[in-house]
Each structure stands twice: as structure tokens, then as C-alpha cells.
Design goal:
- Helices cover about 40% and strands about 20% of the residues.
- With about 200 residues, the protein is an alpha/beta fold.
- It has one domain: Rossmann fold, CATH 3.40.50.
- It has a five-stranded parallel β-sheet, sandwiched between helices.
- It binds flavin mononucleotide.
- The site of flavin mononucleotide has 17 residues, from helix 1.
């Protein structure tokens, strides 16, 4: 059974977030024919994940070295078993909300989502082969696609090789037709959902 994980960093909430609107559209199209798939959503606004500090790093190292999945390794363990990953993250401050970085801290665990070979070569340990990063922005992202670029780099490091990008941009520019921009992005979402 396909295990689909959605990481929802749309902190403004499902009712008003344009990123959620676009992401949910993609998800519905993608899940349309999948009667067997299992969906797990991480709603970051409700999870209150803490950024790592000294004590947490020590506690996590202990869990890893003892081979016990505990409070600080559970998310990484679950993430490593996903088949498909969908990230929903608005474009904030040229990347994404800090809550998503904190989520990435929680899933980046040596020995669970990646490891190093004896010769020092990194090896991804995640089962997923594909991910999609869905965002919307007030202006145009252009060459400043740091949120996606970082996510892609991290996921490649985890062994997730195909990381796609989908966006609706220019949504806060006065005079732009936001409905039309979102509609066009949804057309792209439909095409991507078929090849994804
Ligand atoms: C805290 C914050 C930071 C933002 N930073 C940027 C930015 O750096 N560049 C930009 O083009 N838009 C920026 N925006 C605008 C959002 O990207 C845009 O409104 C987006 O569609 C919001 O997504 P949402 O509707 O899913 O919340 C920012 C908005 C917020 C609330």
C-alpha cells in the first residue's frame, strides 16, 4: 500500500491559504485513483515542534545509539518509511516558514533518514523515490528559489531523487488576476499529478 505523507506548512490555515488550496487540488488529483493509499498529514501549525537544542541533540543521540525509536526519532522513522512526500509551504522571506525548517531538523537523523558509509560517503535511507514541493508567492520567485532548492538538496541527501516543483506566483501584486494565476497553476497541478 502506498504511504503518502503531506507536510503542511500553510500556517495561515486551510481556509485562506492559497498554497493549501493549490496543494489540496494536486493531492485530490493524485489520490483520485488510489483506493489503497494511506495518507498521513503533518499539520505543522498544530504540532508545536521545538527547534533542537543541546539537550534534545543529546537525547536523540541516546535514542539512536540505543536503537530505541522515541519522542525525538519517531518523526524521522515515520518519514523514512513514506513512499511519496508532498510539501505544502508558502514562500516566506525568500524560502519557507521556520516551522518547516524545524520539521526538517526532526527528520534529519543519521542512522534513520541517512547514514555515512565507512569511507564517509553519505547514503540516503528514505524509501520514497519522489516528492513534490508546492508553494505560492506574493511576488515572483525567479532565481531566489531557496526553499525549494534547499528541500531538494536535503531530500536528495535522504535518497529521494525526484523532487518536483509547483508554484503560483505574483499573487500579491496589485492588478494581477489571482484567480487566473491559481487556475493556471491548477492546470499544471493536474498534468504533474499524472506524471508524478
Ligand atoms: C511572513 C510572510 C513572509 C512573506 N515573504 C515573502 C517573500 O519573501 N517574497 C514574496 O514574494 N512573498 C512573500 N510573502 C507573500 C506570500 O508568499 C504570499 O502571500 C503567499 O501566497 C502566501 O501563501 P498562503 O496563502 O498559502 O499563506 C510573505 C508572506 C508572509 C505572511
Amino acid at each position: 500500500m502506498e504511504n503518502v505523507v503531506v507536510v503542511n506548512a500553510c500556517l495561515r490555515g486551510k481556509n485562506i491559504s492559497r498554497t493549501y488550496d493549490l496543494g489540496n487540488f494536486f493531492l485530490k488529483k493524485y489520490m483520485r485513483e488510489k483506493k489503497e493509499a494511506e495518507l498521513k498529514e503533518y499539520l505543522l501549525s498544530d504540532m508545536n515542534l521545538k527547534p533542537f537544542d543541546k539537550e534534545m541533540v543529546e537525547q536523540r543521540d541516546k535514542e539512536v545509539s540505543e536503537g530505541n525509536i522515541g519522542a525525538l526519532t519517531k518523526l524521522a522513522d515515520e518519514f523514512s518509511k513514506a513512499d511519496t512526500v508532498i510539501i505544502l509551504a508558502p514562500y516566506w522571506d525568500m524560502s519557507f516558514p521556520a516551522a518547516l525548517k524545524v520539521f526538517f531538523e526532526h527528520i534529519s537523523v543519521c542512522g534513520i533518514t541517512f547514514k555515512y558509509e565507512k569511507d564517509g560517503t553519505p547514503k540516503g535511507l528514505c524509501k520514497a523515490k519522489k516528492a513534490v514541493y508546492i508553494t505560492t508567492s506574493g511576488g515572483y520567485i525567479g532565481d531566489y528559489n531557496y526553499g525549494y532548492d534547499y528541500t531538494k538538496g536535503l531530500f536528495n541527501f535522504f535518497g529521494i531523487n525526484d523532487v518536483y516543483f509547483l508554484s503560483a506566483e505574483g499573487l500579491d501584486i496589485i492588478g494581477n488576476n489571482t484567480d487566473e494565476i491559481l487556475l493556471n497553476a491548477k492546470k499544471e497541478a493536474e498534468i504533474l499529478s499524472e506524471k508524478f
